[in-house]
Amino acid sequence: MPFKRSPMRYAHIMGYTSVTYQDDGNCIISVGYDGDFRIWNGIGDDDPPTVCVGEHVWAALQYGDRVLVATDLNTVQAYKYPSLDKDGIEFRFTAFVTCMAKNKRFIAAGSEDATIKVLSVDDGEQFELENLEGPVLSMDASKQDLLAASIGDGKLHIWDMKTKELKKTIHDLPKVKSFEAVVHFSSPTFEPKKGNLLAYPNGKEVILLNTTSWDVVKKFVNPKLSTTLTVCRFSPMGDYLAAGSESGDICIWDCETGKLVEGDKPYDANPITKLVWNPKNNGELALSDGNGQVGTVTDIFVEGGEDDAEGADIVAMAEKEDDDEDDDAFDDLFNAHLKPDERDSENDASGDDEANENCIELEKLKSQVMGPTQKSDGAMSDAGFDDDDRGTVRSERLAVAKSYPQQHPFQPSSTPNSLEHCYLVYNHVGIVRRHATDKENSIEVEFHDSQQHHGIHLNNFLNHTMAGLSETVLAMACPNEDGNPSKIVCINQAAFGKREWTYTMPGCEEIIAVTASDKIVVVATDSRLLRVYTARGTQREVIAVAGPIVALAAYGDHFLVAYHSAPANEDQHISLMIVTCVNFKLRCREVRVPLTAGSEMQWVGYSDRGSPAVYDTAGMLNIYHATSNLWLPIYNAEYLQTKGASDHLFIIKVSESTQHVQLVLCRGSKYPLTTPKPIPMEVKFALPMCDLESEKECLEDDLVRSLYLKVNDADKLMKETAVKLFALACKNECEQRAKELVETIASSHLIPLVIKYASKIRRYHLADSLAPLLPTFQEQEVQEEKLEQESVRENAAIVNELQHINLEAITKKDTTPKIKPLPVGTKKPTNPFRKSTAAATDGISSPASSSGHTGANSSNPLEHLTGKAIGFSASRSSSPSVGSKLTSSSVDATGGQDENRPQNSGGGTSTPGMKFLPWFELNRDDLQRKHPEADEQQLIKIGMREFKAQQAKGVSSDAASSPADGGSAKRKLDASDAPESGVSKLAKFGFVKSG
Fold this sequence. Notes:
four-stranded antiparallel beta sheet; 52 strands; 19 helices; alpha+beta; globular
């Protein structure tokens, strides 16, 4: 009878999941990436007891009244079972524990840090198996006290735990750098009764070894298997061997005969991570996959009883046929058991089959033998199944679409908060440590330069879990806990008086990331909002982000926002918002982050020259070149020769000026230890250039660095390297390559150097061909300079727009009529503010509207500001002769302007009473044409000078036309001339702004 598989059911979040049986076989225990410990009373248990024992749980081992649990705290914690009260710590490692094994005398645990620790149950002695070259993937212990462990370097080691001697090493297994990325565990398993056989999967076969001679005894193969095997396990009596594959298949062999046991196909294609038999030896095993699911396989070697005697021949004949390939053969088989009249009336009497007890329904019989098939769906309705039952059968067969988790938010240069002593931030400025123990909850700040700032020790009353540190600012943030809202607290080291400021997030917003520079502080919340503050505590902007936020970084006036721009598949799709803050103006550029395939972002920040840099979990460090809008790979963790397979790099600082990366090498773990304090090391940038052993390629590497990276003396380094490459090409008789190099660099400063060198080595033809390039390069540089100036002006678009808005607001507030100059000889439109002659009943006539000057249609825009309007008596002008006299004395060669109207002899457009901003808006285009090379600020300064000059010329022109100036010959007053009143003098100067 073929074995049956239960549908895989959700147990934990997506990630590595492990499963084991209670030692009496009554319950299934599962642990997963979500840190939960679950006890299942059978696979159908809908509400298993669940206890969270850590952030991540990797393995569990239950025996007697104890259970050992391996969490992300790098320890093996013992608990009482099933109460799960803590019962001490069995092992401590420098990285998380990946697997455990036990027999009657020893307990062993293997870790990501490439070490195995063994504890003797009898005397409590503990010893360590070192010198491994990769993380420990899987282990098993035999009755003969042998310990087998598969290692990430592609080897399988077998030790004798009594003598601590290495017995055997097997090579050529799949290699992996980290346990979190493993798919093929190559799990070894000993035959449980005597322990004289060892099995392990390799590719699509399971190999059996004799533990005495280490010869290959047998190989088990499934010819129908399409993917490689990941795990294997002996049954409790050693008579069966089960293995799981990368696509979720379960293969079971009879160890004596080597026959493959048939069974159900998998419901979904997820790699099997753990496989364990029920200790009751009842033909049941439990399994877990990489998608956080668990399931069972039953009826593996259950024998048929008397009840199955009648159908034994049918089952035997059905097993001889293919399972799902040829339905016609099954039709012939089942038709042989039907009567002729039943076969003839099968289609007509389908409705009476349910009531007829002697009727054998074809599809029902097939489903009993083979299980539900696609073809039998249509017959289920005839057999009495309703729509709900039919939908349930179909849904169980549908493959579940595989999903991929998006990377969670993280703080660059920090370690997990679940540790009792962790780094909230460790960067080039200093270290912020958090101590969260039963006796202490505090934050310690240590600056690398103790002469600039002294250390700080704070009580962590708010339970801060995030921090940002710059030369002058310490920013700390806490999440929502126990009904307390999320807060940001900043301490400004360079401030006078009160140095601390704080803000509480509104509503239920929770801070998920924080960063600080010497000018700004930025926090990100779970509402996908960015809140920007100044270093002194002023709220600036609130910005919405178009995806889940991953990390933040800041540098001066700039900050980075990494966020998910698309759902994750095999890769993470992360983009960067590069934001610049100048005053209350923001500029943003968005770029995609180049992550290695299948990796996540591990660190993001700025170099010492302000270039964004990203480091991923695969060990690749990339830097962003803003001018070309491209990412350049500058370092790979594999280039560090002292790095082991389980070691990781913790980035502290990227120095673009010195071409070095400051980092901490974490031996066997992802994060550095807090005690003792780690010692940073520096590695030089290593661009992935080809063949760096030769001189030419080394010079090419230096040339690329000088052109794209902000190194010290980049221009000088570029010239020296280019000349060396030019000389090397000439030495190797590659003149065309030498000329191509000069044309590619296209620098006018380089041409004289290479021409001089070519002439010195008597390559006169090469020198003559390079000479015409000089004016071409100079012209190109001029054009590039102009383009750069235009780009600068384009970058000032926001400034211009704000100025336009301000000008518009000023214009709306100013109700004084604006006068625009017209060319000479152009007829001016009638002034709507002009007073008509008929309306002048008070005896005051406008000089511009007198009957003696009807040919000049100009009107005085200031005529409504007469002495009467100002508040003085107008009796002096009551005589018509006086008005006529004033009119005649105010007319000049251009026609019809009175003495109260200021004269503009400068040829500009300055108008009395006009402010500078309206004047500048009117004359912007002329100033831009006169000074094309000036930027916006310089243009404003030039305009201010011209405006003041025009105003000064207008005043001097009026003063020159006045008799009091002495600029013209004095004349005696006629009898008809009235003396000039104070109102007239006031009208001349009251509306002219002097320079």
